[in-house]
Amino acid sequence: MVINPGSTSTKAAIYDDETALFVEAVEHSQEELAQYAEIRDQFSLRKETILSLLAAQNVNLKSVTAIVARGGLLPPVKAGAYRVNEDMVYQLKYEPQNEHASNLGAVIAHELATELGIEAYVYDSVTVDELEPIARITGLPEMERKGMGHNLNMRASALKYARRLGRPYPELSLIVVHLGGGITLSLHKRGRMIDMISDDEGPFSPERAGGLPGFQLIEMATAPGYDCKKMMTKVKRFGGLMAYFGTTDAREVEAKIKSGDKKAALVYEAMAHNVAKNIGKLAVVVAGNLDAIILTGGIAHSAMLTGWIKERVDFIAPVEVLPGENEMEALAYGALRVIRGEEKAREFIRN
Hints:
By secondary structure, this protein is α/β, with parallel strands linked by helices. Helix content is 40%, strand content 19%.
C-alpha cells in the first residue's frame, strides 16, 4: 500500500510488485482544508480518505504486506528507506521541521500497519539532505541552507533517466527541477544531491511565493497584523499563482492566456523565467558540466511552461521532460527493494 498526503490532495495506491493495481487521488479544496488550524488536525480526514479510496477498489487490507508513505519533514536524513517507528511518529506530530501534509504520511501508515501487523516505511523523505558543506553557507552564521525539497520525485526522475540511458546514476551530472505546487531544483553529482534550491528561496510557484526581496519581506513580516504563522501561511499557501489569480491550477492560468489575458501571460512566463534563472545558479556549481536538465512534476505536462524554460537553458545542457509527479511509483519501488533485500531500511532515532 502506498499513501501520499499532499498539500491539496490525498493519494493511495496498491502495487503488486512493480504493477500498479490502482492509483487514485482525492483533491481537497482550500475551503475544506481551511477548517483545520494545524496540519496534524487533518489526520482523520486524510486517513478516512485513504480508507475510502481502498474500499472503493474492494481492497482486502489483510492482503497488504507492507505500507510505504511519503516521508515528511523530519530532521535531515539520508536517501533511501526508513522504517516507521514511534520516534518518527512523535517527531512528525509534535516536532516537524516545518508544516506540510506529508508529515501525516508516516503517522497514518504507522496506525494502519500496527492494526494489520505489518511493516511501514518512508522513502526518500522531503528532508533528505546530501548538500556539500560549501552549499550550506549563507550570509548569516545563524542561518544554514538545508537540502529540503521534492527529493522523492527528483531522485526517482534522475534514476529513471539513468536507466533510460543505460548508465549508472552516480556517473551522471544532472539538474532536476520539480514543477508542482512548490518548485524545487536539485543538482545531482556522484549519485548524491550535492546542492539544491528549495521552494522558499527559489522560483515562485502555483501556491508558494518563492524567494522574495529580503528587505521588503522583513518589512511585511513586522508590519501590524502579521505574525510568524500568518506570514508562513501567506508565502506557503497563498503565494505565486494563487496570489495573482486566486487559483493554484496552472491550466486555468493557461486558459486565461489563450483568451488574451496579458497579465496572466506575463506572470506565467515570469514563473518560467525564474525557474530558468535558478537552473543557471545550479549549473555554475559544476562549471556547466551537465549531462542533462530534467523537468518533472505535474506542471511539466505544460508544453507552454516547459517550452519557455527550455528556450532559456538548453544552451547549458539537453533538456529532458519527464512529466508527472511519479511519487507513488517511486515509493512503491523503494519499498519493494527493501522487501526484496536489495536495500536495507534505516532506523530513525529522535534526538
